[in-house]
Prior knowledge:
By secondary structure, the protein is an alpha/beta fold. Among the domains are: 36-173 and 742-772, Nucleotidyltransferase, domain 5 (2-Layer Sandwich); 303-444, no CATH class; 464-639, no CATH class. Mean pLDDT is 83; it is low at 283-299, 389-399, 514-519 and 523-537. Residues 1-24, 284-320, 386-405, 507-546 are annotated as: Disordered.
Amino acid sequence: MPSSTQNPQKIYSLRENESPASPEPFYQNYKEGVPIALDLGSSSFKIGLTNSTSPNNVFPTLISRFRDRKANKSLTIIGNDIYRDSSIKSSTKSPFDGPLITNWDYVEDILDYSFEHLSVTSSNGKVNNPIIMTEPPCVPFSQRKNYYELFFETYQVPKITFGIDSLFSHYANTDNYNPKTANSLVIGTGHESTHIIPVVDGRGLLSQAKRIDWGGSQSSQYCSKLLSMKYPYFPSKLNSNHATNIVQDHCYVSNDFQEELKNYLDMENLEKNDVVLQATNELNSGAASSNAANAESKKKSEEELKRQAEKRREQGKRLQLQAQQKRLEKLIQKEQEWEYYSNLKLEFESMNKQQIQARCVQEEFESVEDFNKYVANLDKSLKKARNEDVGDGEEGGDGHSGQWTLVDIPDDQLNEEQIKEKRKQRLMKANFDARERAKQAKAEEEELLRKFEEEQAEWRARDLEDWCAVKKSELADIITKITEKAKLLESFKDRKSMAAQQRMRNIATLANDENGSTSATSRKRRRNANSTIDNDPNDTFGTNDDDWNAYRDITNASLEEQLEEDNQAVLKIEAELLLYDPTFHHEDTFNASQKFDWENSTLHKFIHGPRENILVKLQTESSQKNDGKLLEPEELENHPEVVQRNHQMHFNIERIRIPEILFQPNIAGLDQAGIVEISENLLYHRLDGNFQPGGQSYNLIQDVFLAGGLVKWPNFESRIINEFTSFLPVGAPLKVRRAKDPIVDAWKGMQKWSQTEECENSYVTQAEYDEMGPEYIKEHGLGNVCLK
């Protein structure tokens, strides 16, 4: 699809976590003795009494300790309230470190907050409600020990029981659940890990449960790393909340990852799949400051503005005059030097080679070639200076020779004041002569140019085909030079190249220049020893601006200038050919041949999406409109569209790459098997592998249950179906289903289970805890077991 016909892409802002419009609700139907279901996850916290069908409070498991200096108080902010004030976010912390709780003080603060919003009250200072709580599979003993201590010793609850969140979710989504005959393969994707638990005859078979160390937290971190490597100079910081929201909002599971990856960056597919993420930029703030500046300027009186404008004009004129005077002085110096060496060249005509060489050495040149090169460069520099605008409006008094009455009078016939005046007149006369010579040189060049144009017009009229052929030949020669110089510039980047080696030799020569070097630069320094600006009479470097050209040998300035001149010559010839040659078109120009084919660049489409890079686009448009002239770097940098594009990220291949890690963990460097490989091994080798009616594997594949937040990704269910079908026997009765609400269904399962006899028999009372200690648990079908 041509870029000119493409519609603008939809732009998604980087979503920030925001607190709900209403504050955290307080429960109005609290009763003592009613079990409290509590799902304490590393991502979110859900709590509520089981006499309700949904949790009363759902908020992120975050806490912030904030010091209010005005009130001189320390505040503890929990859950969604953290997002109400941006200053609090910087001190946000979680009680979890990975899948385990490491700060139990934070947990106690969160429970205090939750019980308060449940309106828990009692006459004995205890929480008189049983607790049903989730925990990860195979929880370490230290975690449950601290749970027991917290609830029995701090809150003094009457009894407590624990269960696994994914099994509770499976229980909530299964109608007529039979705790003795239920069979299922539960795949639970959590915030810190993913578990695959076979449920056989109503009980989780924990001895065959498998874990993948990948969950929502790792997916967000991986997304952040991918985007940081993709956009290393992105102007805005991508925080963890941004990454989490990107993964939740824009990732999806590919039904065939390898096949989709092959064609993902094709323009047609990229047009549909590329997601543009826009970060906030400073355009609005810049506009606001500009409006404020305009308002401030309006407050100033018109008279003050006029005075300021007049002052600026006077300063500009003064600077122009100073610059003009400096240019004239340089021009005079160069003309005197050129005249001296021109006369020397005339003297060379009457000398032999040995005499010429001796005279060159006497003039402190290394060789005749060095002399010729220096004179040629001087002539080129002089022509360039003459072409500058020397102006005709200098100060009065130097417009005719009648005002220079003292120039030809010897100093011994003048007094001191007249000698000073004579020096001024000599400088004014030299300035006048320099301008006249510059005007004359300009007029001569214009006359030569006019004659050249007439000759060219006559040539075109006489033989257009020959003229075009010669111009194309000249164009090809210049383009060859440009290519060679571009390669030379590129070679400077390699320190082992000949060009880089030569530059190092030049640096060494400059450092050793005081040891009798006869280069043009050293010769000029010694020749102008009387114009030193230091106390050292031997150090005159810098008194003449041309001295600084010595550094051109160790930088690329000279080569870059030549390259610019060649480019201008190419543009000039191409303009003539476009005007007179009917066979020469814009597609034949050098710029068009060097144009970047972004539509066929995999890297460009990966980084910039299915649209042309804005910098290339703006430079191309500028070149077409302004006869090859490109925008200045400052113009590009401050261009509104460039600023906006610089704050955009293109989220494309990452959309399927991040979810794919659950199926291929090696993508992220995990030496583990994926969901499908583990499930296949479990069904074929860990269980009985019998896919006939009555077999364990046969019963499990009839109910493959998906739980946890990551199963909300699109195509997760269909991918599981496709992958399981590929390794199951033909005709196997595979059924895959997903939790109705993957986030809250674990709490709903606890609420539903609290009304059963199995729940009542699974509580550990405070008396049993006091007698048995924290090692004691009661096993049930939805919880952990004692593995020996």
